[in-house]
Amino acid sequence: MSQVPHETVHYRYPPRRLLGDYLRAGVGTTFCLFVLLAAEPMPFLLWLFLGLGGIFLAFGLYTARLQLTHVALNQEGIATHGLGRRQLAWEGIERLRLRYFGSRRQRKQGAGSLELTLWGRSGKLKFDGQVEGFRDIAWHALQAARRRDLPLDEATADNLASLGLDPERNPPRPPLDQRSLGSL
Predict the structure, then answer these.
(1) How far apart are alpha carbons 13 and 74 in whole angstroms?
(2) Residue 107, pLDDT score
(3) Is residue 22 part of a domain?
(4) Which residues form the domain of 169?
């Protein structure tokens, strides 16, 4: 993370946090390719492993896109750039959702993953919990939702509270060393 004038903070998806996704995509694609090359040509197996290999390959490309994505955040709004540029002004936020993916057991262990989705007049932005500064991004989104008096669904409110961002109060901005969810 780096800070530049005008209080704009930049975040990105660190490669070390994406390493597991790259490994899963690579192993899955390689396995499917190996099966296609080694097995007898049977239509069912061909289509099955072509489809699975395509899914793993698409997941690898998605992970590469995340790695290329940079997030710029300030009091006026949030923007992402990488393969494309998208931005959303805080005053234009129309909806906020924070979803948790994982089991209750994983949640108790601090595992699972979070996904923040912001809707606005100019489109939609999604952030995976692996991005640096995820708590800071969620804090800014919560502040914007509060200013606009947007309703939060129960799951979003609970997930914000699990990040230490109580939607019923006005939580302070997370300290610099606590703005990310942590490393894997």
Answers:
(1) 18
(2) 61
(3) no
(4) 89-178
